[in-house]
Amino acid sequence: MSYPIVGTPDAANTAWVMVSAALVLVMTPALAFFYGGMVRAKSVLNMMMMCMSAVGVVWVLWLLFGYSMAFGDDIGGVIGDPTQFAGLDGLFGGNYSAGDPAGASIPLVGTIPALVFVMFQAGFAMVTVALIAGAVADRMKFLAWLAFAALWATLVYFPVAHWVFAIDGLAAESGGWIANRLGAIDFAGGTAVEVNSGASALVLALIVGKRRGWPRDPMRPHNLPAVMLGAGLLWLGWFGFNAGSALAADGTAAMALVNTLGAGAVSLLSWLVVERIRHGKPTSFGAASGVVAGLVAITPSCASVTPIGAIAIGIVAGAVSSLAIELKYRLGYDDSLDVVGVHLVAGIVGTVMIGLVASSAAPAGVDGLFYGGGLDQLWRQIVAVLAVGAYAMVVTALIALALKKTIGVRAEPQDELDGIDDAEHAETAYDLAASRGGRLDI
């Protein structure tokens, strides 16, 4: 059989995945609000620009060769054929039958138009690139960020997406090694999105270096309502991210939908309990971070656990991530917006816990250790995490070091002090400096 197949799309499934694709695309501007509220006022536009620019950079690469690298026919188990769908060739055309949809005969992925799948997966790539930006807030040149985003998407995300998402017979003849040979479960991107971006964020933060004055000077979030708004929009988008990955309006999507709500809600509470015990007050910042930690953790596991399993994952993710964000002070790395503590750590939790709490009652049909499945699935999940994390860290280091030696990655010291918004974009988010009669320092 040749791929993509040609046939008539299922109307209900197509409608659902089109909505899901839009929800996933909203996640990148939602992340811009989430991250933008966390930084100081003098760098909020730069932070939001780093997120939003990922949409443009990734789409151009995705259109030209990225989709083909991710979902083209497998080459050696590690990459898709970059020429197979170059320019999205072969993914459109045929008989659209506008007057009679039942008579359409167009390229499909599963039961939906291939172009809908292209857009759905493009949103994953965009938000994964944008996630890394939070680790280097306040101090990275925008031009260097654009170059990094393009190189990282090409050399890290597209290959790893092939390993994890390219299932045999879904969009091409054969797919990547994690999904098809290892047998690890990653329904919507615990490794390809979360571990991948979190491990890369750690390396990039180390190479770019610490913010000036960190950790001595207070660098508190300047707009907590924006953080809460961003978290809420991310939660909304995550329903499309997870449930849309079923590629159908069916029972698998329903299970993913319920588990996405449950893990996010319980992780919020878990984070606040830890925060109350350790620091005396539950905070809005903690609530927003707890929601995201739970959503990260349920991403790989939403179709392999029951709603009770999702609660267990949410509890662990919220508590562990709440503790993990303080590691940067002990270990001395400046991960500005806790990409490592939330995305890497919760991504590991959610991926590995599949090997513990997966249930054959869920759509994936696999039992974890606690349901009598033994260690078989657990070791597969651990190998997937280690492989993706190691690959991401090595290649990210090579990219970042190459940019550091050529165009430079760090903003000028005075620009960091005065505000990177003005230095990089000739703009400020709030026109407060004149009314205060001095420099904007918040």
What do these coordinates show?
With 442 residues, the chain is mainly α. It has a single domain, classed as Orthogonal Bundle (Ammonium transporter fold), CATH 1.10.3430.10. The protein is 63% helix and 3% strand. The chain is built from 17 helices and five strands. It has a three-stranded antiparallel β-sheet with strand order 1-4-5. It has a two-stranded antiparallel sheet with strand order 2-3. The radius of gyration is 21 Å and the shape is globular. GO terms for molecular function: ammonium channel activity.
What attributes does this structure have?
17 helices; 442 residues; mainly alpha; 63% helix; Ammonium transporter fold; single chain
**CATH architecture label:** Orthogonal Bundle
CATH class equals: Mainly Alpha
How do the strands of the widest beta sheet line up side by side?
1-4-5
Order of helices and strands: EHHEEEEHHHHHHHHHHHHHHH
Number of strands: 5
Biggest sheet layout: 3 strands, antiparallel
- The tally of domains stands at 1
CATH level-3 fold name: Ammonium transporter fold
Note poorly predicted spans. Answer: none
Structural class: mainly alpha
Mean pLDDT: 94
CATH superfamily: Ammonium transporter AmtB like domains
What portion of the residues fall into strands of 2 or more residues?
A: under 5%
Rg of Cα set: 21 Å
Shape: globular
Proportion of helical residues: 55-70%
Give the N-to-C terminal Cα separation. 60 Å
Q: Given the structure, what is the number of helices?
A: 17
GO molecular function: ammonium channel activity
Organism: Williamsia herbipolensis
Protein name: Ammonium transporter
Membrane topology: Multi-pass membrane protein
